[in-house]
Design goal:
Layout: H1 3-16, E1 17-24, E2 34-43, H2 46-56, E3 59-63, E4 72-78, H3 79-89, H4 97-113, H5 120-137
Antiparallel strand pairs: 1-2, 2-4, 3-4
Helix pairs in contact: 3-4, 4-5
Length: 153
Amino acid sequence: MGITALAWAAGFVDGEGCISITVRKPRRAQRTPQYTAQLGVFNLDPAPLVKLHQMFGGTIYFRSRVSHLRAVGEWRIKGKNAAWALEQLRPFLIVKREQAALAIHLHAIKRITGRAGLPIGLLQEFARIREQVTTLKHQPYDLSAFAVSNVVN
């Protein structure tokens, strides 16, 4: 993958993407909840979603919406594939760089510890990472940090 394509993808993810940590409650044989990093991008135009799919894999979904004339598309990638994609994009991310770092960190811990019954300390760490990502997603921007003279609040 070229640097230009990665920079484009990072810009698109920064503007239209969503990094999240999902949690799934334990099922029959599982003793602990499952935490998974996820990267998604929504757009009305399928072309950039197809480009992201070609670059990183994942799945593209289309859903019709009452408020739009066209279907809304979503490209989504999860788990180790999301962590890999975020590792590629992280040097170019601006808005979502810290969220990406947390998602990559979560996956690194999971890779080291494996899937068998996780200790409570790790589950608490996963929950803390998930909370940090959620907090970052809702944090207001500090416009005073930018030296731009024509910014209107």
